[in-house]
């Protein structure tokens, strides 16, 4: 067992400040740091320069990673879109409140969305005096009570569904991928590629808010399908032989540009040293034969829709120049569940006691103030129990319905190729009991979701997202 402090591996010059009391007070500066959460959609674990990708340049995201910490054991709470985002914004395993499906898009359906019993991160931050912005994809319910402007976001720009066309769409309020793009609830014309439009909006938000603390949830739908890069960007990737990979690469490249614009706005407005930035994908790249979007999760096993590492382990970066170590990698196990308590700590907001978060404030772990592991156990459940998993230390138990439990040692077998269940029966029992205990704290899925509507033929046009 390695000493926990060895888990932060410094590769280049270390910028390390143990405390958070060195923010220079100034009349025009806010008293608390900003929080920027950038999410990509269905991006493969391997598909960034800083993750080792060779055929898709991502200079802006690489620069972000170089300015902070790249986590090689960063996880989301679900292997597909909407539940992953529900876990992120509540700081709780989303199965605690039944959010275990992608909601079926229907503005008149008052079940299909993130239950309004939950108080989201932006609500806490707004109440603490933060400007709270959402830009991009929502996918947490279409009925009015689920809209982002009713869930704590004071400034909004994006679409409500689970995906969207990027170019030349004909706006149609009844079709999930052709919904109007709305700014603060009013439709606006978007003529640019949608990913670049989101980047421009993010940069404008950053420039607009320099005297108050802010939280921006920049939730890209790229590089999720449909694959619609701009023709000129696609032409830059003609050396990639596979047409799907080529289009996907162009989409990732546009995403990188969009992020670059937002990060430039941060630097140019002098806010980069008082802004904590997170970046991760909402789930692994889809690799199923028909649904493959051109992504790669190598060397991980599986992808979107699976509790193998390829579905849940994602590219994961935290950056805060001058406050957190820079240019380093960490194998500390972190989760998107940690965003919520980390953000509340920065804002000086006490953690809720009635619905305690499942993650931890990562800052003391990253500065060295705390030296044990931040997440000794993480859990996953999909489809009401069709797939389950637990990671404890380097061991991982995978439980697929109607199959015996499988045990993997991620330290020596990142690709989950060797099932050790037959050799480590005590560990299988121990982890299985831990998984059972966690599972008992959850509730059944609260709404049927997209999958639950699949049987109705009139809904077939909606069924574009697994
Ligand atoms: Ca996704």
Keyphrases for this structure?
466 residues, alpha/beta, Alkaline Phosphatase, subunit A, disordered N terminus
List the helices and strands and how they pair.
Layout: E1 8-10, E2 34-40, H1 59-66, E3 69-75, H2 81-90, H3 121-127, E4 131-137, E5 155-159, E6 181-183, E7 186-188, H4 194-208, E8 214-219, H5 231-235, H6 243-268, E9 275-281, H7 309-312, E10 316-319, E11 328-335, H8 339-347, H9 363-367, E12 377-382, E13 387-392, E14 395-400, E15 406-409, H10 425-439, H11 449-452
Parallel strand pairs: 2-8, 2-9, 3-11, 4-5, 4-8
Antiparallel strand pairs: 1-11, 3-10, 5-6, 6-7, 9-10, 12-13, 13-14, 14-15
Description of the molecule:
With 466 residues, this protein is of the alpha/beta class. The protein has two domains: 6-376, 3-Layer(aba) Sandwich (Alkaline Phosphatase, subunit A), CATH 3.40.720; 385-443, Arylsulfatase, C-terminal domain (2-Layer Sandwich). It has eleven helices and 15 strands. It has helices at residues 59-66, 81-90, 121-127, 194-208, 231-235, 243-268, 309-312, 339-347, 363-367, 425-439, 449-452, and strands at 8-10, 34-40, 69-75, 131-137, 155-159, 181-183, 186-188, 214-219, 275-281, 316-319, 328-335, 377-382, 387-392, 395-400, 406-409. The strands form two sheets. The protein has an eleven-stranded mixed β-sheet with strand order 1-11-3-10-9-2-8-4-5-6-7, with helices on both faces. A four-stranded antiparallel β-sheet has the order 12-13-14-15, with helices on one face. A hairpin with a 2-residue loop joins strand 13 (387-392) and strand 14 (395-400). Helix 1 (59-66) packs across helix 6 (243-268). Mean pLDDT is 92; it is low at 1-6, 9-27 and 462-466. The protein binds calcium ion.
């Amino acid at each position: 067992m390695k000493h926990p402090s060895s888990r932060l591996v410094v590769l280049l010059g270390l910028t390390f400040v143990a405390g958070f009391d060195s923010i220079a007070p100034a009349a025009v500066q806010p008293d608390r740091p900003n929080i920027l959460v950038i999410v990509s959609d269905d991006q493969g674990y391997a598909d960034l320069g800083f993750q080792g990708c060779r055929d898709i340049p991502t200079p802006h995201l690489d620069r972000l990673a170089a300015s902070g910490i790249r986590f090689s054991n960063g996880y989301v709470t679900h292997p597909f879109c909407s539940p992953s985002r529900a876990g992120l914004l509540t700081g709780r395993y989303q199965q605690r409140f039944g959010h275990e499906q992608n909601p079926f898009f229907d503005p008149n359906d008052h079940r299909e969305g993130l239950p309004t019993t939950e108080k989201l991160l932006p609500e806490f931050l707004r109440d603490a005096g933060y400007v709270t912005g959402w830009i991009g994809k929502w996918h947490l319910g279409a009925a009015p009570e689920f809209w982002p402007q009713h869930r704590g976001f004071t400034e909004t720009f994006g679409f409500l569904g689970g995906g969207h066309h990027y170019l030349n769409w004909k706006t149609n309020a009844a079709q999930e991928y052709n919904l109007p793009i709305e700014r603060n609830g009013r439709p606006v014309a978007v003529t640019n590629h949608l990913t670049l439009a989101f980047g421009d909006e993010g940069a404008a938000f950053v420039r607009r808010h320099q005297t108050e603390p802010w939280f921006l949830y920049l939730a890209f739908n790229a590089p999720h399908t449909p694959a619609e890069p701009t023709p000129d960007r696609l032409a830059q990737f003609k050396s990639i032989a596979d047409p799907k990979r080529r289009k996907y690469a162009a989409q990732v490249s546009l995403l990188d540009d969009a992020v670059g614009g937002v990060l430039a706005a941060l630097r140019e407005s002098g806010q980069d040293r008082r802004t904590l930035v997170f970046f991760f994908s909402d789930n692994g790249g889809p690799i199923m034969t028909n649904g493959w979007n051109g992504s790669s999760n190598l060397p991980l096993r599986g992808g979107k829709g699976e509790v193998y590492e390829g579905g849940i382990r994602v590219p994961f970066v935290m950056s805060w120049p001058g406050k957190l170590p820079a240019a380093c990698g960490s194998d500390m196990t972190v989760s998107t569940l940690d965003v919520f308590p980390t953000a509340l700590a920065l804002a000086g907001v006490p953690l809720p006691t009635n619905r305690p978060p499942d993650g931890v404030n990562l800052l003391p772990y990253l500065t060295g103030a705390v030296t044990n592991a931040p997440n000794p156990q993480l859990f996953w459940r999909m489809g009401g129990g069709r797939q389950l998993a637990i990671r404890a230390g380097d061991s991982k138990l995978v439980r697929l319905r109607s199959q015996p439990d499988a045990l993997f040692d991620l330290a020596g077998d990142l690709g989950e190729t060797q099932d050790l269940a037959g050799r480590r029966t005590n560990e299988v029992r121990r982890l299985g009991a831990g998984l059972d205990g966690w599972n008992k704290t959850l509730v059944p899925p609260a709404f049927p979701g997209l999958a639950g509507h699949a049987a109705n033929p009139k809904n077939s046009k909606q069924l574009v997202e697994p």
